[in-house]
Design a protein that fits this description.
By secondary structure, the protein is mainly alpha-helical. The chain has 20 helices and no strands.
């Protein structure tokens, strides 16, 4: 398994983008953009530039990620395979949330179909049947009998207490990541320290961004914010999170962070900047794992993180161009630092 997977990851690594690649896409004449994307083996994204496409840009990005994931999981077995497959299932959780919102809004099933993500061989839900159920209560009951029953059960209980769609969404998200953590825990010893480091960066990013949004954007009380965070052996300790949720503002949270996070986030002025820095830190760690000769699963996970990071950058460029934004604004929105240069290929 390790030899085949490491070879495949090393080949896929050539697909990662450098800053120069983004600059070329930003500055390319409109008629040359499809060909430029096709050359980077992104024909799915090229289809819709400047015209109609059968899928949304987001849907085509996810389709590309799933296609590559399908190749990477071929040699995997047991716990390693379960982890990578479960990493893709966050897209199916998005389908769950789309269906729930549609039922709450009384939308017709036909109007929802185009917004659902085609999971292909990773699909575990009969979306067509679920889209035709009567109401959100029946939908949640059906979902409790699905492979996502454990995730949905907690969300249903939270929803029944106040019928708040925000709390329903937040509970689904928390339950997904806690299930991801359970899938990752058995791999800490076999996949090495690099795997744990990637998980730590991921869970820290999730918990810190959620904490700030729930506390300061939505005004939730500290106890409720803490309940909605991911309980995990990776990342910040529970007592640290309990202290952070009681802080009165962003500056207070930054002052209480562990040193490894405090240094990376010093001087952040808002949640958007903080999220961008955490994204870049996760990408930096993933690049280090990908370049090293570590466990094949860790390198595959690092690649999938970086591939998604790149494709979302491509999405930002394409959307900016389609909206007619100035090239300088697109470059600024992309936000890739000089440290990312030269690490994509080779």
């Amino acid at each position: 398994m390790s030899s085949y997977l490491n070879t495949r990851v090393s080949l896929f690594r050539q697909r990662l983008w450098q800053d120069a690649d983004f600059d070329a896409l930003i500055g390319a004449p409109a008629e040359e953009v499809p060909a430029a994307l096709d050359e980077r083996q992104l024909a799915l994204l090229a289809i819709g530039f400047g015209g109609d496409a059968p899928l949304s840009l987001e849907g085509r990005i996810i389709a590309e990620l799933l296609r590559e994931t399908r190749i990477l999981v071929r040699p995997l077995r047991g716990e390693a395979r379960r982890f990578i497959v479960y990493w893709t299932e966050r897209f199916e959780i998005s389908n769950l949330k789309t269906l729930i919102r549609a039922k709450m809004a009384g939308e017709r099933s036909a109007a929802v179909a185009d917004r659902l993500i085609d999971m292909g061989p990773f699909s575990r839900l009969d979306l067509d049947t679920l889209s035709h159920v009567e109401d959100v209560g029946e939908l949640l009951r059906r979902l409790e009998s699905s492979p996502y029953g454990g995730i949905v059960r907690n969300a249903r209980r939270a929803f029944e207490q106040g019928h708040d769609p925000f709390i329903l969404d937040a509970t689904l998200d928390r339950s997904y990541f806690e299930a991801l953590v359970r899938t990752a825990r058995p791999l800490r010893d076999t996949a090495g320290e690099g795997f744990g480091e990637l998980m730590r960066c991921l869970i820290d990013r999730v918990n810190l961004v959620w904490l700030l949004r729930y506390r300061f954007n939505y005004g939730l009380p500290p106890a409720q914010v803490y309940y909605l965070l991911v309980a995990s052996p990776f990342g910040m300790a529970p007592d640290t999170l309990r202290r952070l949720v009681t802080r009165a503002d962003l500056a207070g949270v930054l002052d209480e962070l562990p040193p490894r996070l405090g240094r990376a986030l010093a001087g952040c002025s808002d949640i958007v900047e903080l999220f961008a820095r955490l994204e870049r830190e996760l990408a930096r760690r993933a690049h280090a794992m990908l370049r090293g000769g570590g466990h094949a699963l860790t390198r595959a996970f690092a690649y999938l993180i970086l591939r998604e990071y790149d494709l979302r950058g491509v999405r930002a460029v394409l959307r900016g161009r389609q909206l007619g934004l100035p090239l300088t604004s697109i470059r600024q929105a992309l936000g890739r630092p000089p440290a990312m240069q030269g690490v994509g290929g080779g």
